[in-house]
Design a protein that fits this description.
The chain has 18 helices and no strands. By secondary structure, it is an all-alpha fold. It has one domain: Growth Hormone, Chain: A, CATH 1.20.1250.20. The two termini are 18 Å apart.
């Protein structure tokens, strides 16, 4: 029990779940800033052998002109890596990233996510700092190895973070706080791309790795000091906030089975719907986040300063769309206009159909720089709707195994990060608009097919294997068709394959946290 003086001090600060959410936001911001370092730096690291095109770049030309003498091909890079080799180096991160999702998620579910997340990002930060030395001394082989190791560290980020959120975030705040946390990925990409250009221009490409590696280590210290795996283990949480969280977060989070229900999880249709939705999102996202700077350089011929600034604009819009979508999703659920399942499907579809349309449109905009940038911005911006959709869907399905589910869905989705850079290197070897149009058509097809599967298979309901069997009996008062306060839910709008779902209480019913 906290002393009166300690409780007064605690009240003077923000609720601890808000601090944790902000630190989670910074965790992903750091993770993605470190991840994007190479995507920005590689355009200055390698030699550039494309010949200058002197045509007008309008008509039937398959290449774009250089609009300014300052935009002539950059040839001063140190490393003579082909497009295929660049694709392998960029994709190596995701080899390690995919491997550690499952063990990281399971370890976080058992032992708590705080230190699992911290150690993972510390590994990434340390090897980010070593990247310039490895590139100079070890060559392309060791660059592949170090990127793989960085991926190993970062692969446990999402599962561990999901485990922590499941213990801290009430249902009625998942849209806002969950979206805030996961939108850190966009903010990290924004900061990484926006600062990358000026850093490289002034201090060389090595500076981006040093800068963001140090920032990652500073985050590690702050996280270990301020954040805890559960509200019950936090030494400075107020009694009011602890009581609120224990009431609002389902009791089954404390009644985990002794053995993981692997068979039931493997047979879960909503889980595999979630996996398909994640694959669709990741394919489009990694196509842009990994290779948009290359498109800006190779096709549109922006210099490094322009490239960094313009490559960050789509991520800025995506971040704002994600935050706004999270608030709208929570508002819809609090007002009980739609069911949880319908909300997840609605926002996932917006984040799929919109990008599919604008990616194809961008490929037909040719060399019209302004139009291409606007279309890319709209495509990536609408991906922000994924966050209150498929991105937090694992929290709906299972609070006890949230880390494991995130490991499965995000781990399988991460495989696309291996495929897309290699595929782009193979298809766009000649830096032509037609080649990139093929890439965008493939992304569009993946968006649409995975979204249809998600609409058919997804659910926002807690899955029965999440709890102990006897917790589902009527005498325990925790039937799956009741609201969080124990009352029967109002009628919700569902699609034909959905059941009635748990909905958060109205604003008047919520205790103050």
């Amino acid at each position: 029990m906290m002393s009166p003086s300690a409780n007064i001090i605690s009240r003077a600060w923000l609720p601890k779940r808000y601090i944790l959410a902000f630190m989670g936001f910074l965790a992903l911001s750091n993770a993605y800033a470190m991840r994007v370092c190479l995507s920005i730096a590689i355009v200055e690291m390698v030699t550039y052998k494309s010949q200058r095109n002197t045509t007008a770049g309008t008509g039937d030309s398959d290449t774009c002109p250089f609009y300014d003498e300052l935009e002539k091909p950059f040839t001063g890079g140190t490393y003579d890596w082909s497009e295929e080799i660049q694709g392998i180096v960029l994709g190596a991160f995701f080899w390690g990233y995919a491997i550690t999702h499952l063990p990281g998620g399971r370890i976080a579910d058992i032992y708590g996510g705080k230190y699992v997340l911290a150690i993972g990002l510390l590994i990434t930060a340390f090897f980010t700092l070593l990247t310039p030395v490895v590139a100079e001394k070890g060559g392309v082989t060791w660059m592949i190895v170090i990127r793989l190791v960085e991926g190993l560290g970062e692969g446990i980020t999402y599962p561990a973070l999901n485990t922590v959120l499941a213990k801290w975030i009430p249902v009625c705040e998942k849209g806002r706080l969950g979206t805030l946390v996961f939108s850190g990925a966009q903010m990290g990409t924004i900061i990484g791309t926006a600062l990358g250009g000026p850093l490289i221009t002034k201090w060389g490409w090595e500076s981006v790795f040093y800068f963001f590696g140090v920032v990652g280590i500073l985050w590690f210290i702050a996280w270990c000091t301020l954040c805890y795996s559960t509200p019950q283990s936090h030494p400075w949480i107020s009694t009011e906030e602890l009581a609120y969280l224990e009431k609002e977060i389902p009791a089954q989070t404390k009644k985990q089975r002794k053995q993981t229900p692997w068979k039931e999880i493997a047979k879960s249709i909503p889980l595999w719907g979630l996996v398909c939705g994640q694959v669709g999102h990741d394919w489009g996202f990694y196509t842009l986040v990994t290779d948009l700077p290359k498109y800006m350089k190779d096709i549109l011929h922006f210099n490094i300063k322009q490239n960094a600034a313009l490559s960050s604009v789509p991520h800025i819009v995506m971040w704002f769309v994600a935050i706004f979508s999270g608030w709208i999703a929570d508002w819809i659920l609090i007002k009980r206009y739609l069911s949880v399942t319908t909300v997840r499907k609605l926002f996932t579809t917006i984040g799929s159909i919109g990008p599919a349309i604008f990616l194809v449109a961008a490929s037909y905009a040719g060399c019209n720089r302004k139009t291409v940038v606007v279309l890319f911005t709209l495509a990536m911006g609408l991906m922000g709707a994924y966050y209150p959709g498929v991105k937090i869907n694992a929290l709906d399905l299972s609070s006890n195994y949230a880390g494991l589910l995130m490991a499965i869905s995000n781990g399988i989705g991460a495989i696309t990060g291996i495929i897309t850079p290699f595929l782009i290197g193979e298809i766009a070897a000649n830096h032509s608009i037609t080649e990139w149009r093929t890439i965008f058509f493939i992304s569009t097809a993946v968006f649409l097919v995975t979204n249809v599967i998600y609409l058919y298979m997804a659910s926002g309901e807690e899955q029965p294997w999440n709890r102990l069997q006897n917790d589902l009996s009527p005498e325990n008062g925790e039937k799956s068709d009741t609201t969080l306060d124990g009352s029967q839910p109002e009628i919700s709008i569902t699609t034909s394959n959905e059941k009635s779902e748990n909905l958060p209480p109205s604003n008047n019913d919520q205790p103050k946290g």
